[in-house]
Design a protein that fits this description.
119 residues, mainly alpha, 4 helices
Length: 119
């Protein structure tokens, strides 16, 4: 490919950058500024905050979230396998059985360690 073939991509990148800059700069420069104590008050998710913002969450919350993402991503591998199953035949079936076995071993390990128990 010639360098000239990349010109549309360069134009798109420049246009997107200019648009993003203008979308941030124009309202900041031309928008009204009328700060009041009510507008400057801290407000989050429809509720007034209470207590320290740096309170601790149980580690268990994060463990469950990471495990959910991990097992969810592994399940995504079923879709391309299901599409190609007729071409993969028995070899593909055996590969998926091994994959599911490893996934099941990991799930049982996590379950036995108590990572899924809410206490």
């Amino acid at each position: 490919m010639r360098p000239l073939d990349y010109l549309p991509i360069l134009i798109l990148i420049v246009a997107a950058t200019v648009f993003a800059f203008l979308a941030l700069a124009v309202p900041a420069l031309l928008g009204p500024r009328r700060p009041t104590p009510t507008k400057l008050d801290v407000y989050e998710s429809g509720m007034l905050p209470y207590g320290d913002a740096r309170r601790r969450f149980p580690v268990h919350y994060y463990v469950v979230a990471v495990l959910f993402i991990l097992f969810d991503i592994e399940v995504i591998f079923f879709y391309p396998w299901a599409v190609m199953l007729r071409q993969l035949k028995v070899f593909g079936l055996i590969q998926m059985a091994i994959f599911v076995g490893i996934l099941l071993i990991g799930f049982i390990y996590v379950w036995k360690k108590g990572a899924l128990d809410w206490r």
